[in-house]
C-alpha cells in the first residue's frame, strides 16, 4: 500500500530521499491543469493574454479575474488556483505601495517578482496563534509578472517553488508546451506591440478547446511609452480576434 | 517665537509634562535633558547641473568650543551628501542610520538610490522619531537622476521640501537673506537655476564668512563640497577662529 | 499588569570626579587627572584612580559619576577579555574602537533618558599602524578626536593654554609642562579641583606608564589672599 512516493508527500517540510518535496511538485500539477496564460515582451511593452475557462454559459465572464493590476506599472497574469493568485497579487500590491511610501519611487519589476517569490517560499512556516500565519501549503499558482521600469519592459515568471525567471516570452498552464512551441516559431526580437497582441491571441486560439471570443480570453499590456499597465476592453479584444487567421 | 525658544520647546515639551496653565517662574534646571545643541552652520545652492554645499567645522557647547575640526557633511552616495546642523551625537547617529539604509537599498535593488529616494528615506527616518526627535537640521544635497542640482531642506521631525538654495543652523538667519538676494529668482515658482559655479561658490563662501563674523557658533574651518556629473569634490579652508 | 510605580532614573551624578586632560606629544599621548572624588561638594575620596587601562594599548581617563565609570570599566574589561579569549592571533579592538563603542553606549543610555554621567578621554596607540589616538566621549554620546582633549570644567580654563601650543613636535617634557600649567590654573580657579595629579603616558611602542600621583606646587601667600583688599568699599564691616 505504501510506496516510496507517498511516504514523503504529506509534510511540506520534508524532503524525499531523492531530494524532492512532493507537495511542491503537486502544486506544479495544479498549474499544469489550469487555463493557459501567455506573456510576450517586446521593445514597446509587454503583452499578457489568458484563456478563461467558463464552465457554464450562465456564468458572468467578467467575474473571472485572471489578469490583475499590481501597481500602475506592473500587472500579472495567473495560471493555477485563482484564490492563491489573488493572495500573491495582494501581497505584491502591498509591497509596491509600501515601497512608494518609503522611497517615493515605483518598485522595480524584479523586486515585485522577488516579493511574490518570497511569499511563495514562506509556506509551512509560522505557528498556530500567529497574527498572520503564513500559508501551510505551497501556492498552486504560476504568475506572469509584466511591467516597465527604468530598465525597460520586462516579463518574469514565478512558480510554486518560488523560483522566478526572466523571459522574452513564456506560456504557463495546461497548454504551456504547445503554446511555447508556437511562440518560439513566431517570436522575433524586434516585434511591435501590435504584433505581440496578435501573436498572443493567435497562440491561444490554436491551443484552446473552446472557440475563441472576446469573453473567454483576457488581454492586458504594459507600454513602454506610457509606463502604465492596462487591461483591454472586450471591444479591443474583439478587434484583435478579428485579425486572427 | 524665536528659533531658540522653539528649540527649547522641542526639547522641553517631551520631557516635562506640565498641565498647569498659569505662568510660573522657571524652576531650577533639574534632571537630565537629553538634548544639547552644538549648532554650526551649513548652506547649499543648487545649480543647473551641479550643487555646492558649505559647512563650518566648529563644534561648540554653550560658550566653549569642543572641537575646531568636526565635519558636518557626510557623503552618502557618489551623487548625494547630507549636511547637518544641530546636535552632534544625533547627527552622527542619523548619518549612520542613513548610510545603513542606503546600503540595504543597494543590496536589495542593485543600484544606489537617487536623491529623491534618499529625500523620502530621510524624511521617514526623521518622522520615525517624531516623539523623541533627532535634534538635527538637515540639507540633503546632490544631483538628481536628470543631472540637475537638487537640495532638500528638513525640519527636525522630517517635513521636507525641495528648494534651490538653503541654510541651516545657528548662522542660517544671517545666510538665508544673502542667498535670497544673490541667488537669482529665489522667490518665483520655477526659478532658473544658476549655471556659473564660480558665482555660486563665492556667494556661499562669503555667506559663511559673514556668518562667522557675527555668529559665535560658526567658525574655525570651512568645508566646500561640489557635486556634479564628475562626482564629489571637496575643499577646505580656514574661517575666523574667534 | 502595569507597574504602578513610575520608572525613575538617576538625574545627577553622585560621587564624581573633576576635569581630565589628554595631550598628544611627538612619541605618544599624555593623560592626567586628579585623584579626588567629590560628593555633595566635599572631597569624599582623596586617593581614587581616575585613569584606567582597558587594553594593552588603550587607556581611559574619566570625569563624572564614579559608579557609572566602574560599571563601564566592567563592560570594557569584558570586551577586552572576549577579545583575548578568542585567541585568534588578532587583537580586534583598537583605541578608536573602544572610543566609538563608549560613544555608542553613552548614546544608547541617553536615548533611554537614563544616561551614564561621564565624559571620557580615550587614549592609545593603534596596534597595527602605530598611530596615536586621542578622543573624547561625552554624556550624550558625542565623540571626536583632537591633538588635545579636555573633559569637565577644563573646557573653560584650559583651551586658552593648550590651543596652538600642542604641535606635532611637542616633546613629553613640553606636554608635561603644559599639563602642569593647566592643572595649576584649575587648582587655583576650580574649587573642586584637587592638587594630587596622576600622569599616565602611552607611547608609540605601546608602553603604558602609570606614574605615582604628584602634588602640585602652589603658592597661596599672595597679598590678596592675606588682606581684605576691598575693605574701603564696604559699608558694614565685620571685625573680630
Automatic annotation (TrEMBL), chain A:
InterPro entries for this protein: Ntn_hydrolases_N (IPR029055), Proteasome_alpha (IPR050115), Proteasome_alpha-type (IPR023332), Proteasome_alpha_type_5 (IPR033812), Proteasome_asu_N (IPR000426), Proteasome_sua/b (IPR001353)
Cellular component terms (Gene Ontology): cytoplasm; nucleus; proteasome core complex, alpha-subunit complex
SMART domains, sorted: Proteasome_A_N (SM00948)
Keyword terms, alphabetized: Cytoplasm, Nucleus, Proteasome
Domain Proteasome alpha-type subunits intervals: 8-30
Gene Ontology biological-process entries: proteasome-mediated ubiquitin-dependent protein catabolic process
Subcellular location: Cytoplasm; Nucleus
Oligomeric form and interacting partners: The 26S proteasome consists of a 20S proteasome core and two 19S regulatory subunits.
UniProt record similarity statement: Belongs to the peptidase T1A family.
Protein name: Proteasome subunit alpha type
Biological source species: Euplotes crassus
Lineage: Eukaryota, Sar, Alveolata, Ciliophora, Intramacronucleata
From TrEMBL, chain B:
A Pfam match: Proteasome
Claim: Nucleus is one of the keywords in the record: yes
Biological processes, Gene Ontology terms: proteolysis involved in protein catabolic process
Record key words, sorted: Cytoplasm, Nucleus, Proteasome
Superkingdom classification of source: Eukaryota
Claim: Nuclease is one of the keywords in the record: no
CC annotations in GO: cytoplasm; nucleus; proteasome core complex
Compartment(s): Nucleus
The protein's name: Uncharacterized protein
Native source organism of the sequence: Euplotes crassus
High-level lineage: Eukaryota, Sar, Alveolata, Ciliophora, Intramacronucleata
From TrEMBL, chain C:
Places the protein is found: Cytoplasm; Nucleus
Keywords: Cytoplasm, Nucleus, Proteasome
Entries under InterPro entries matching the protein: Ntn_hydrolases_N, Proteasome_beta4, Proteasome_bsu_CS, Proteasome_sua/b, Proteasome_suB-type
Gene Ontology BP annotations: proteolysis involved in protein catabolic process
Gene Ontology cellular component terms for the protein in this record: cytoplasm; nucleus; proteasome core complex, beta-subunit complex
Record has Membrane as a keyword: no
Top-level taxon of the source organism: Eukaryota
Major site of localization recorded for this protein: cytoplasm
Family: Belongs to the peptidase T1B family.
Alphabetical list of PANTHER family matching this protein: METALLOPROTEASE TLDD, PROTEASOME SUBUNIT BETA
Primary role: Non-catalytic component of the proteasome.
Identification of the protein by name: Proteasome subunit beta
Organism: Euplotes crassus
Amino acid at each position: 500500500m505504501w510506496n516510496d512516493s507517498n511516504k514523503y508527500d504529506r509534510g511540506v517540510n520534508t524532503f524525499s530521499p531523492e531530494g524532492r518535496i512532493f507537495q511542491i511538485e503537486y502544486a506544479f500539477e495544479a498549474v499544469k491543469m489550469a487555463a493557459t496564460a501567455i506573456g510576450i515582451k517586446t521593445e514597446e511593452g509587454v503583452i499578457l493574454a489568458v484563456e478563461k475557462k467558463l464552465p457554464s454559459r450562465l456564468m458572468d465572464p467578467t467575474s473571472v479575474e485572471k489578469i490583475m493590476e499590481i501597481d500602475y506599472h506592473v500587472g500579472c497574469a495567473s495560471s493555477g488556483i485563482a484564490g492563491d493568485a489573488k493572495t500573491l497579487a495582494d501581497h505584491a500590491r502591498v509591497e509596491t505601495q509600501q515601497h512608494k511610501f518609503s522611497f517615493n519611487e515605483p518598485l522595480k519589476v524584479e523586486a515585485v517578482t522577488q516579493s511574490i517569490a518570497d511569499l511563495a517560499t514562506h509556506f509551512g512556516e509560522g505557528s498556530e496563534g500567529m497574527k498572520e500565519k503564513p500559508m501551510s501549503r505551497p501556492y498552486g499558482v504560476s504568475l506572469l509578472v509584466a511591467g516597465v521600469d527604468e530598465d525597460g519592459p520586462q516579463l518574469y515568471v514565478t512558480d510554486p517553488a518560488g523560483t522566478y525567471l526572466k523571459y522574452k516570452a513564456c506560456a504557463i498552464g495546461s497548454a504551456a508546451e504547445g503554446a511555447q512551441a508556437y511562440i518560439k516559431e513566431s517570436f522575433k526580437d524586434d516585434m511591435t506591440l501590435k504584433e505581440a497582441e496578435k501573436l498572443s491571441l493567435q497562440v491561444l486560439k490554436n491551443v484552446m478547446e473552446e472557440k475563441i471570443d472576446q469573453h473567454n480570453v483576457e488581454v492586458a499590456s504594459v507600454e513602454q511609452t506610457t509606463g502604465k499597465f492596462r487591461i483591454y476592453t472586450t471591444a479591443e479584444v474583439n478587434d484583435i480576434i478579428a485579425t486572427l487567421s | 517665537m524665536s528659533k531658540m525658544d522653539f528649540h527649547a520647546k522641542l526639547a522641553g515639551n517631551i520631557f516635562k509634562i506640565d498641565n498647569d496653565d498659569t505662568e510660573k517662574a522657571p524652576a531650577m534646571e533639574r534632571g537630565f535633558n537629553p538634548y544639547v545643541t552644538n549648532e554650526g552652520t551649513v548652506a547649499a545652492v543648487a545649480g543647473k547641473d551641479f550643487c555646492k554645499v558649505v559647512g563650518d567645522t566648529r563644534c561648540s557647547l554653550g560658550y566653549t568650543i569642543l572641537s575646531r575640526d568636526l565635519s558636518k557633511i557626510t557623503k552618502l552616495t557618489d551623487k548625494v551628501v547630507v549636511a547637518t546642523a544641530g546636535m552632534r551625537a544625533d547627527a552622527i547617529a542619523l548619518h549612520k542610520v542613513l548610510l545603513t539604509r542606503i546600503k540595504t537599498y543597494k543590496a536589495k535593488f542593485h543600484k544606489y538610490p537617487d536623491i529623491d529616494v534618499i529625500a523620502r528615506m530621510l524624511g521617514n527616518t526623521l518622522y520615525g522619531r517624531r516623539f523623541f526627535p533627532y535634534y538635527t537640521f538637515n540639507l540633503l544635497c546632490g544631483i538628481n537622476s536628470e543631472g540637475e542640482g537638487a537640495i532638500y531642506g528638513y525640519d527636525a521631525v522630517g517635513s521636507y521640501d525641495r528648494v534651490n538654495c538653503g541654510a541651516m543652523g545657528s548662522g542660517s538667519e544671517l545666510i538665508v537673506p544673502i542667498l535670497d538676494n544673490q541667488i537669482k529668482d529665489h522667490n518665483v515658482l520655477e526659478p532658473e537655476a544658476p549655471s556659473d559655479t564660480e558665482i555660486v561658490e563665492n556667494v556661499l563662501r562669503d555667506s559663511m564668512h559673514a556668518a562667522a563674523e557675527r555668529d559665535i557658533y560658526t567658525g574655525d574651518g570651512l568645508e566646500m563640497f561640489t557635486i556634479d556629473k564628475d562626482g564629489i569634490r571637496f575643499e577646505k579652508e580656514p574661517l575666523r577662529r574667534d | 499588569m502595569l507597574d504602578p510605580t513610575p520608572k525613575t532614573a538617576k538625574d545627577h551624578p553622585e560621587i564624581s570626579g573633576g576635569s581630565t586632560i589628554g595631550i598628544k606629544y611627538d612619541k605618544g599621548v599624555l593623560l592626567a587627572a586628579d585623584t579626588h572624588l567629590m560628593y555633595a561638594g566635599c572631597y569624599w575620596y582623596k586617593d581614587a584612580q581616575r585613569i584606567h587601562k582597558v587594553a594593552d594599548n588603550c587607556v581611559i581617563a574619566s570625569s563624572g559619576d564614579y559608579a557609572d565609570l566602574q560599571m563601564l570599566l566592567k563592560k570594557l574589561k569584558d570586551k577586552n577579555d572576549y577579545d583575548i579569549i578568542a585567541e585568534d592571533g588578532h587583537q580586534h579592538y583598537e583605541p578608536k574602537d573602544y572610543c566609538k563603542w563608549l560613544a555608542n553606549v553613552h548614546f544608547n543610555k541617553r536615548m533611554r533618558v537614563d544616561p551614564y554621567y561621564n565624559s571620557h578621554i580615550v587614549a592609545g596607540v593603534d596596534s597595527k599602524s602605530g598611530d596615536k589616538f586621542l578622543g573624547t566621549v561625552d554624556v550624550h554620546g558625542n565623540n571626536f578626536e583632537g591633538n588635545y582633549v579636555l573633559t569637565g570644567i577644563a573646557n573653560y580654563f584650559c583651551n586658552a593654554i593648550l590651543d596652538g601650543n600642542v604641535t606635532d613636535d611637542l616633546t613629553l617634557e613640553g606636554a608635561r609642562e603644559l599639563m602642569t600649567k593647566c592643572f595649576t590654573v584649575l587648582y587655583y580657579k576650580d574649587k573642586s579641583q584637587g592638587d594630587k595629579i596622576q600622569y599616565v603616558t602611552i607611547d608609540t611602542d605601546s608602553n603604558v606608564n602609570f606614574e605615582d600621583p604628584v602634588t602640585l606646587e602652589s603658592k597661596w601667600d599672595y597679598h590678596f589672599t592675606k588682606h581684605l583688599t576691598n575693605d574701603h568699599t564696604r559699608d558694614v564691616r565685620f571685625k573680630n
